[in-house]
Amino acid sequence: MFATSGMSQDELKKLVGYKAVDDHVRSGMVVGLGTGSTAAFAVERVGQKVKSGELKNIICIPTSVRTKEQAEALGIPLCTLNEKSHIDVSIDGADEVDPDWNLVKGGGGALLREKMVEIVSDKFICIVDESKLCKGLGPGFPLPVEITPFCHEHTMRVVASLPAVKPFLKEAVLRMGSSATNKRDGDNIAVTDNGNYIVDLHFKETIKDAPAAAAQLKNTVGVVDHGLFIGMATEVIVAGKDGVYI
């Protein structure tokens, strides 16, 4: 471990993004590339190593249009899950990480594609700065739920009334403006890369049973997927004030 005190949040994100690639990505691999400000540093590192020739014969699967554009600009060879349904390793960030390594993801709106890629990966390396660690999921970051546009108000009401959700819920908010942020930055309903809407669930207290909430959300007709990633992370690399640790 080395001292990281005085480093900016972006510098900490760069440390974990680079470390994940240096530790886990090798020539000949199929690699899932995450979405978001932390994952972008991992994509940057893959691009450097492809350009230098250190990484040969690798192919990557991006989890969003944003990541695809970044990877293409860096000369990283890409494909989709249609061509490669088995992935050696995926690297991605998270919005919250609890002590059991359960995650909230999807602040950047790419939760469905991220989950599709990461669920078929032998290893999913989660990279975060220390601010993302929490004692329990819910109050620290809104939980995104991707829903179909058809009768979306109805689906929002059903989601808000689920037994594992309702007691802890403050409000359900339809994402507006850009789908890439859960801050309202426009007057139109945000649309994901998949043509769907996102409901952000704001919690007043910790979700008591995150696996139950995940199951109930997934079983709701009209819900495409949700940002609870339960038991999916193989390793969490954290950058904190005292250094980088796993």
UniProtKB/TrEMBL annotation:
Q: What class of enzyme is it?
A: isomerase
Enzyme Commission identifier(s):
5.3.1.6
Q: Name one GO biological process term.
A: pentose-phosphate shunt, non-oxidative branch
Q: Does the keyword Transmembrane apply?
A: no
Reactions that this protein is recorded to catalyse? aldehydo-D-ribose 5-phosphate = D-ribulose 5-phosphate
Question: What domain of life is recorded for the organism?
Answer: Eukaryota
Describe which pathway this protein belongs to, using the record's wording: Carbohydrate degradation; pentose phosphate pathway; D-ribose 5-phosphate from D-ribulose 5-phosphate (non-oxidative stage): step 1/1
Q: Which family does it belong to?
A: Belongs to the ribose 5-phosphate isomerase family.
Instruction: Tell me what this protein is called.
Output: ribose-5-phosphate isomerase
Q: What is the lineage of its organism?
A: Eukaryota, Discoba, Euglenozoa, Euglenida, Spirocuta
